[in-house]
């Protein structure tokens, strides 16, 4: 039965996914050859709430290329799939579902709510796994893991291939707690007032918004004054005045209520006279106004604003560090919902306690945190409502720094008016990536890993080369983060997640154990225990992904075979959040590195280099691409743009082009089938014909290039080599070169060409399979009877020994001549169908042999009707140079030279104007500095394209000059 004219990607993909699954083609160890090493990859677990996006499609394409390649090489492979329970994201999804029913989480007990989440997970949680299958991901999906597997309520517990991830996480927490590596403490964290939980830096989006900078006076205690002096760079006095205040600027006036000090730089001479004195916070009831010290610290910048900074340690990360260094009390002003605190004693009593601290009374962190310094009339207000009130009260009291502005009165007269100094300026504001509310730095009780105690081995493993990070620039980032590591906050105030296995008695003593019964045994009979309600950050559990998915702490067969794993492919944005933490956790728990190589890639951007976002409307759905172009085209595009450290620009035109590439391969296979050139037995042919010897050598060359590229993670080089070989060498040249042999050759020549072509097409399928699995598997099954599916075909090992130097030289000479003649014809606008004469002045023996052996084919491919040897080229000829020979094309009587010249000169004139404009923009420092990066880069790309076009046109014009 003849092949279909075109490849039906949609029908074939669905059929092949099912066939691979039914054959168990991707199970751990499938196609492993006896004695081969293991090769394993752990999928970066997508959120169980997730759907396939371009980042997933890119990341998983690269993993699949590696695992299919290694599987075909006979390695004992495992690509471990799974999903992360995604604490906040999953809880948010289920709470939204409840809202549709008019219910909220707190209408349920914790266990009831969790049962709703498990039900949702069973119904909808596998979406992204099924979408990965559509991409062609060859994971061992029978082993799909889940970071909450085994927890109470898990309906899938007991599945033979589902490791109990929950118990592994709890075991690690208990062991690390007992070793003193985990502790509970009060630190500043990113707090999401919507979800009422701490979140990680990765879950915070810093967005530039329109903001304000208010300038206020903090009066000196007791009406003290000082001589305030400003000087220019040369030391000349530019301002001298007596002040009874110190000026500060803030974007968050509501936090002034919790100030513990005002800091200035030690070198700032302006404030030297008042360092060590007290100043008054200019807000709150006057009779209870607090005094705070003026201190020195290296944090304030003398050249920014007034050079004085208010220190609110409980609500700003920089201030927190200053407060820790200076022993400054930290007063928390807000509750978990981002409202001003309403608890505690009346303000008068609370302010008196804080004042005692300012005067030197000893205090603990907990004592300071318990004090509510929100004035009674502001308690319970939203933080932004409180901000407006604070600004209003300070301004009314005359403690705003004033400036003047010109205003017009009713009669139209301009006059200078004193107004509060408020700068309108853009500020970077943190938002929760899911809640979209402003994140509040909050001092709260949380659980922490003492990361400093476990970071050493993770640093050493990269320094000594045990683990390689690619590109190497990632190593510098890795070192920077780990050498400056802070305690890792691992608790979240959620219900969905691994609940922290610590119980408290009524006096606050802690009992850490895997179960309540074991905690009770520690506490003793009759002691009432309450479990910590918090859950573990998902980064803690996913930090155990490599061992947890393999069944640890059990010594499973998979754990012994596949750990440590081989390659991790992940985004550079989670190098610290996930990669470094896996390194620390595995080394701390099992004293082994989790992988030997980390391949980092950037964000997938649009064709212009812009970050994809819903707000800009440039998000590309990979499933829509697959629907339109097929998975293979998307995968080849991903591979082609995967240069180490390169910018990932997804261009829809490239995807369409690679679909055409698949069509080209399909047509070449159809040609082979129509000419009986299918059904290779896998043995490398030993043909006589030069063309056949040449293509076998070209195949051997590209096999080496592909292997070398994949070994060094240069996916783009592998894709480029295969594209050039399959389209150029095979589909174009070899198919054309083979036609005379198949149509006019003797029986022996025809038979060897059929055998060679069958083998070459099969090699194309094998070498392309890791990148384009669907079309290659379909063709593999169509073009002959096979012992195995292509996914399990043997990866070739042939090399340079199959390159025939004589055949290589001859056929490459023929190709260079044909390409040169075609290029000359195109440049000179010779009509495509016109047959033209050609002349030759010199030709060496090798060239003559190549011409004699391939004359008919050369003439047909170049539409040259004759070749005559001449002493010199006739007037009106253009030269065509090849190795060992000089050919000429007499064109004076074939094209209108003057018209062609005029056309080229006119085109060059238009191009010159475009080039001038582009160069002018790029030579303008203001444009380069102020325009968005993607706009500048687009201008540079356009300039390069136009310059390339200009070069070609000038070459063509120069050739026309030869004709005169």
Automatic annotation (TrEMBL):
UniProt-annotated location(s): Cytoplasm
Annotated ranges, domain Valyl-tRNA synthetase tRNA-binding arm: 896-960
GO cellular component, one term: cytosol
All copies of domain Aminoacyl-tRNA synthetase class Ia, residue ranges: 17-645
Catalytic activity: tRNA(Val) + L-valine + ATP = L-valyl-tRNA(Val) + AMP + diphosphate
Pfam families per UniProt: Anticodon_1, tRNA-synt_1, Val_tRNA-synt_C
Short sequence motif 'KMSKS' region: positions: 611-615
BP GO annotations: valyl-tRNA aminoacylation
GO molecular function, one term: aminoacyl-tRNA deacylase activity
Positions occupied by motif 'HIGH' region: 46-56
The UniProt record lists the keyword Aminoacyl-tRNA synthetase: yes
Listed EC numbers: 6.1.1.9
Chain segments annotated as coiled-coil in the UniProt record: 894-956
Keywords: Aminoacyl-tRNA synthetase, ATP-binding, Coiled coil, Cytoplasm, Ligase, Nucleotide-binding, Protein biosynthesis
Major subcellular location class: cytoplasm
Family statement drawn from the similarity comment of this UniProt entry: Belongs to the class-I aminoacyl-tRNA synthetase family. ValS type 1 subfamily.
Functional summary from the UniProt entry: Catalyzes the attachment of valine to tRNA(Val). As ValRS can inadvertently accommodate and process structurally similar amino acids such as threonine, to avoid such errors, it has a 'posttransfer' editing activity that hydrolyzes mischarged Thr-tRNA(Val) in a tRNA-dependent manner.
Subunit architecture: Monomer.
Protein name, UniProt field: Valine--tRNA ligase
């Amino acid at each position: 039965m003849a092949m279909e004219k075109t490849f039906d990607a949609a029908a074939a993909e669905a059929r092949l996914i099912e066939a691979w699954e039914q054959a168990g083609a991707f199970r751990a160890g499938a196609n492993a050859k006896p004695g081969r090493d293991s090769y394993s990859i752990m999928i970066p677990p997508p959120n169980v709430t997730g759907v396939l996006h371009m980042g997933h499609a890119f990341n998983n394409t690269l993993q699949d290329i590696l695992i299919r390649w290694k599987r075909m090489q006979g390695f004992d492979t495992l690509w471990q799939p799974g999903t992360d329970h995604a604490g906040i994201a999953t809880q948010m999804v289920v709470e939204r579902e409840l809202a549709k029913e008019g219910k909220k989480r707190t209408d349920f007990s914790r266990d009831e709510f969790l049962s709703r989440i498990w039900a949702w997970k069973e119904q909808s949680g596998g979406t992204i796994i099924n979408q990965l299958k559509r991409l062609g991901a060859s994971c061992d999906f029978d082993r799909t893991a889940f970071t909450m597997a085994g927890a109470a309520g898990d309906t899938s517990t007991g599945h033979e291939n589902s490791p109990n991830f929950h118990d592994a996480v709890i075991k690690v927490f208990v062991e690390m707690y007992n070793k003193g590596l985990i502790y509970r403490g009060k630190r500043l964290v990113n707090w999401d007032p919507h979800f009422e939980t701490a979140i990680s830096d990765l879950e915070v989006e810093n967005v530039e918004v329109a903001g304000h900078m208010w300038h206020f006076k903090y009066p000196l205690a007791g009406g003290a004054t000082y001589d305030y002096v400003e000087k220019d760079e040369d030391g000349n006095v530019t301002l001298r005045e007596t002040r009874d205040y110190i000026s500060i600027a803030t974007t968050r006036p509501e936090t002034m209520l919790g100030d513990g000090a005002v800091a200035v730089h030690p070198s700032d001479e302006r404030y030297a006279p008042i360092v060590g004195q007290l100043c008054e916070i200019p807000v709150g009831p006057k009779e209870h106004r607090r005094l705070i010290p003026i201190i020195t610290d290296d944090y304030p910048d003398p050249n920014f604003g007034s050079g004085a900074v208010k220190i609110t340690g409980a609500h700003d990360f920089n201030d927190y560090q200053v407060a820790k260094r200076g022993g400054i009390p930290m007063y928390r002003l807000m509750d978990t919902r981002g409202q001003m605190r309403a608890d505690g004693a009346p303000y008068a009593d609370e302010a008196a306690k804080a004042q005692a601290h300012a005067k030197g009374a000893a205090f603990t962190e907990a004592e300071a945190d318990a004090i509510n310094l929100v004035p009674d009339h502001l308690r319970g207000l939203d933080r932004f409502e409180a901000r407006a009130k604070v600004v209003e009260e300070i301004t009314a009291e005359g403690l705003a720094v004033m400036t003047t502005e010109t205003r017009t009165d009713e009669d139209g007269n301009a006059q200078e008016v004193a107004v509060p100094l408020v700068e309108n300026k853009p500020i970077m504001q943190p938002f929760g990536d899911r809640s979209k509310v402003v994140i509040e730095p909050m001092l709260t009780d949380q659980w922490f890993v003492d990361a400093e105690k476990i970071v050493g081995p993770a640093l050493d493993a990269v320094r000594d080369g045990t683990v390689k990070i690619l590109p190497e620039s990632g190593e510098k980032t890795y070192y920077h983060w780990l050498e400056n590591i802070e305690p890792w906050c691992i608790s979240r105030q959620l219900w969905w997640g691994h609940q922290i296995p610590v119980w408290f008695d009524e006096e606050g003593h802690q009992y850490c154990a895997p179960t309540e019964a074991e905690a009770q045994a520690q506490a003793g009979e009759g002691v009432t225990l309450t479990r910590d309600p918090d859950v573990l950050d998902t980064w803690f559990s996913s930090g155990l992904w490599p061992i947890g998915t393999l069944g640890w702490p059990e010594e499973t067969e998979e754990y012994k075979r596949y750990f440590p794993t081989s390659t991790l492919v992940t985004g550079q944005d989670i190098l610290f959040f996930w990669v470094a933490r896996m390194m620390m956790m595995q080394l701390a728990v099992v004293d082994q590195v989790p992988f030997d190589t980390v391949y980092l890639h950037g964000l997938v951007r649009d064709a212009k280099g812009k970050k994809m976002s819903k707000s800009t409307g440039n998000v590309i759905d990979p499933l829509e691409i697959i629907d339109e172009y097929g998975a293979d085209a998307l995968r080849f595009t991903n591979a082609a743009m995967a240069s180490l450290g390169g910018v990932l620009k997804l261009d829809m035109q490239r995807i369409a082009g690679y679909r055409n590439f698949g069509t080209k391969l399909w047509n070449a296979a159809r040609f082979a089938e129509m000419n009986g050139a299918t059904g290779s037995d896998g043995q490398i042919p030993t043909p006589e014909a030069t063309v056949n010897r040449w293509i076998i050598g070209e195949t051997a060359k590209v096999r080496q290039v592909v292997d070398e590229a994949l070994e060094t993670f240069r996916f783009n080089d592998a894709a480029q080599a295969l594209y050039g070989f399959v389209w150029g060498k095979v589909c174009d040249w070899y198919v054309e070169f083979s036609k005379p042999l198949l149509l006019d050759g003797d029986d022996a020549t025809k038979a060897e060409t059929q055998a060679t072509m069958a083998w070459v097409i099969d090699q194309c399928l094998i070498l392309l399979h890791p990148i384009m699995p669907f079309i290659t598997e379909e063709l593999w099954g169509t073009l002959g009877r096979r012992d195995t599916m292509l996914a399990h075909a043997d990866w070739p090992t042939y090399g340079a020994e199959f390159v025939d130097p004589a055949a290589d030289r001859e056929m490459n000479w023929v190709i260079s001549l044909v390409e040169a003649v075609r290029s000359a014809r195109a440049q000179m606008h010779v009509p495509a169908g016109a047959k033209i004469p050609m002349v030759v002045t010199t030709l060496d023996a090798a060239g003559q042999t190549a011409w004699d052996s391939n004359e008919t084919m050369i003439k047909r491919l170049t539409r040259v009707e004759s070749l005559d040897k001449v002493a010199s080229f006739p007037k009106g000829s253009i030269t065509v140079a090849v190795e060992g020979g000089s050919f000429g094309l007499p064109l004076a009587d074939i094209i209108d030279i003057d018209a062609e010249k005029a056309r080229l000169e006119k085109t060059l004139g238009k191009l010159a104007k475009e080039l001038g404009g582009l160069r002018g923009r790029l030579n303008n420092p203001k444009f380069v500095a102020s325009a968005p990066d993607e706009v500048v880069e687009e201008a540079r790309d356009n300039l390069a394209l136009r310059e390339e076009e200009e070069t070609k046109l000038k070459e063509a014009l120069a050739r026309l000059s030869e004709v005169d």
